[in-house]
DNA sequence: TAGATTGTTAATCGATTAACAATC
DNA sequence: TAGATTGTTAATCGATTAACAATC
């Protein structure tokens, strides 16, 4: 098995293709070409074929790709042929939104524990999961074999939360706090910065030739 | 003024530098080198200098950059030396989280109108802004000179929401629905897909040599 | 066979890194 | 002046696009 370096942009697009294939499959369409996929998601056909080619040969020349088959392959590639146990830390408005976000469960991300330090929140049940004090994080997340931690706490508590998640043995962390976190290299870290997205927009608006 | 094409990655990093400079300035530090910034945000010093060089010469050789001065310049570049009037559509849990998100107001993004079609939500006041029916969107957003629209509605309503925002004359749209939207080229569009972020993580976890 | 579409290579384009002259 | 650090160029690395042979 060759381990070519895969561009992250390719992974993001695979995720988008996959969602598109869900739609296409729902419509009962059996076969799809790279051109069809490309049109559906707004990239070039060559890009679609190139992205898929990193992982194997999934199509038939002259015909295209079998929708169900390709979809299965992409889900497998993305690691979505299994469920993932997720721990969410921080039950503010963002935490609540993430907990109830349909897109997570649909893709196999199951929130199995929730932590917050607010005594008013501890003990309440959100989406079927009881909110526990952050003190319990390491113990509970370990016991649950939690694989992914989501940080939705205020920035000043983000690093200590990350430390606890690492101690609990998570493999990956998704961080919504706009700070740079330090985690050991064996833990995958990804940052989502909501304000940055608006700032890219305002930069683009500002530099538009008009 | 030369209009070199600026990488989007540069814009994202400028946003990160800017947030770091807020911290540094708060500590009372007056001068900072590209190496200090680099260390603070986890990139290389050359990258910092290159990013800044797209926009001018902000430092002093042998000395570094004046913190306040550089910060002001970056904010100006990002279009943050003015406030932006933002309209939020969809007052679900995500909409609520976005409305109360401190990071937006801090950076000059002011949510001036909120729309939802749920009669139970219409008329309520969230963070000082009254929720209005989506029917009113075009009229109200126009009257407010709304510049940015945020889409936080279920996927199946995302395109019609985008259409209304375009009709209202917004310059940019931030879309949280995991669908591909069509908007005219003069409207800037950016998609935030929360599930994709988790999928990049699970892909990386799955392909780790271990 | 003729038409269609993949998989893959080569060419192009773009972004990052390294190195260093300029200069405070 | 000596030391430090920028701004910028050249070299490297990586990703996208175009083209086309393979093949259904």
Task: Describe the structure in your own words.
The structure is a homodimer of 210-residue chains. Chain A is of the alpha/beta class and 210 residues long. Chain A has 2 domains: 75 residues, Winged helix-like DNA-binding domain superfamily/Winged helix DNA-binding domain (Arc Repressor Mutant, subunit A, Orthogonal Bundle); 113 residues, NAD(P)-binding Rossmann-like Domain (Rossmann fold, 3-Layer(aba) Sandwich), CATH 3.40.50.720. Chain A is built from 9 helices and 10 strands. In chain A, the strands form 2 sheets. A 7-stranded mixed beta sheet of chain A has the order 6-7-5-4-8-9-10, sandwiched between helices. In chain A, helix 8 links the parallel strand 8 and strand 9. In chain A, helix 1 packs antiparallel against helix 4 and helix 2 crosses helix 3. The longest helix of chain A has 19 residues. The first copy, chain A, is globular and about 60 Å long. Chains A and B meet through helix 1, helix 5, helix 6, strand 9 and helix 9 of A and helix 1, helix 5, helix 6, strand 9 and helix 9 of B. Chain A binds a DNA duplex (24 and 24 nucleotides) through helix 3 and strand 2.
Give a short synopsis of this structure:
The structure is a homodimer of 210-residue chains. By secondary structure, chain A is an alpha/beta fold. Chain A has helices at residues 8-26, 34-41, 45-53, 67-78, 93-100, 102-106, 137-143, 158-167, 194-206; strands at residues 31-32, 59-60, 64-66, 84-89, 109-115, 125-126, 129-132, 148-151, 172-175, 188-191.
């Amino acid at each position: 098995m060759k381990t070519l370096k895969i561009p992250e942009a390719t992974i993001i697009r695979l995720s988008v293709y996959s969602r598109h294939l869900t739609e296409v499959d729902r419509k009962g369409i059996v076969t799809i070409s790279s051109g069809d996929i490309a049109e559906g998601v707004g990239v070039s056909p060559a890009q679609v074929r190139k992205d898929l080619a990193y992982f194997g040969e999934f199509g038939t020349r002259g015909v295209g790709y079998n929708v169900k088959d390709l979809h299965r392959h992409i889900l497998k590639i993305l690691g979505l042929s299994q469920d993932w146990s997720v721990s969410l830390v921080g039950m503010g408005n963002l935490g609540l939104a993430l907990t109830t976000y349909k897109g997570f469960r649909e893709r196999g991300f199951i929130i199995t524990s929730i932590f917050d330090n607010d005594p008013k929140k501890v003990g309440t049940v959100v989406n079927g999961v009881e909110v526990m004090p952050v003190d319990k994080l390491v113990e509970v997340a370990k016991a649950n074999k939690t694989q992914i931690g989501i940080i939705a706490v205020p920035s000043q508590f983000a690093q200590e939360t990350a430390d606890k998640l690492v101690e609990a043995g998570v493999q990956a962390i998704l961080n919504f706090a706009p700070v740079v976190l330090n985690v050991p290299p064996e833990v995958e870290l990804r940052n989502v910065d909501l304000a940055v997205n608006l700032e890219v927009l305002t930069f683009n608006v500002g530099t538009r030739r008009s």
